[in-house]
Design a protein that fits this description.
Layout (H helix, E strand, L loop, with lengths): L13 H6 L7 H7 L3 H8 L1 H10 L7 E3 L10 E3 L12 E7 L2 E6 L5 E6 L4 E6 L7 E8 L15 E8 L4 E8 L6
Antiparallel strand pairs: 1-2, 3-4, 4-5, 5-6, 7-8, 8-9
Pfam families: F-box-like (PF12937)
Organism: Sorghum bicolor (Sorghum)
Protein name: F-box domain-containing protein
Length: 182
């Protein structure tokens, strides 16, 4: 006689199990959401996201940016199974904070690209300072005071350009709302 199949888990236990998936490999949540519609519903619920962030307060390090001497080497080095789209080797990393990175884009003749590695979204930004200044951009979250910078991917951001001229300092900022992503 064949053994009887195991009893299914009670529905109230599944969210607790999914909450304990390790945060250092976000692909685990993606794979779990593909198991069935019920699990996808649980994982995509904003309440689940809040409980997951409360249980795992430190955001995972998905990788790091570097400036290799060999332009054929990747500029983003992954530390997890997370794999962003292939990097454009005409882009030079300049700054990274609040879940976004900004690159100088040699292919756009003076433009910059803001990249959100969690979503893959990119946004072109132009430097509005005159040619008399040597600009240094920085990217910041613009979600407001209540943002903990763990769930602001795809939200609004500011690119601030500060440049040193021969006699003074120049400044320009560029604000991008959530729907402004490319």
């Amino acid at each position: 006689m064949a053994p009887s199949p195991p009893q299914p888990l009670p529905d109230d236990l599944i969210p607790g199990i999914l909450l304990r998936l390790p945060p250092d490999d976000p692909a685990g949540l993606v794979r779990a959401s593909a198991v069935c519609k019920a699990w996808r519903r649980i994982i995509s619920d904003p309440a689940f996201h809040g409980r997951y962030r409360a249980l795992h307060p430190t955001a995972p390090v998905l990788g790091f940016l570097h400036r290799p001497r060999n332009p054929k080497l990747p500029r983003f080095v992954s530390t997890t199974s997370f794999r962003p789209a292939a990097a454009d080797h005409r882009q030079h990393p300049l700054d990274c904070r609040h879940g976004r990175a900004i690159f100088y884009d040699y292919g756009s003749l003076g433009g910059y690209v803001v990249w959100d590695p969690a979503t893959g979204e990119r946004h072109q930004v132009r430097d509005e300072l005159s040619a008399d200044y040597l600009p240094q951009p920085a990217v910041f979250c613009a979600a407001g005071e209540g943002c903990d910078h763990r769930g602001c991917s795809g939200g609004p951001f500011i690119v601030a350009f500060a440049g040193l001229g021969t006699l003074d300092l120049g400044y320009h900022d560029h604000v991008v709302e959530a729907e402004g992503w490319d």
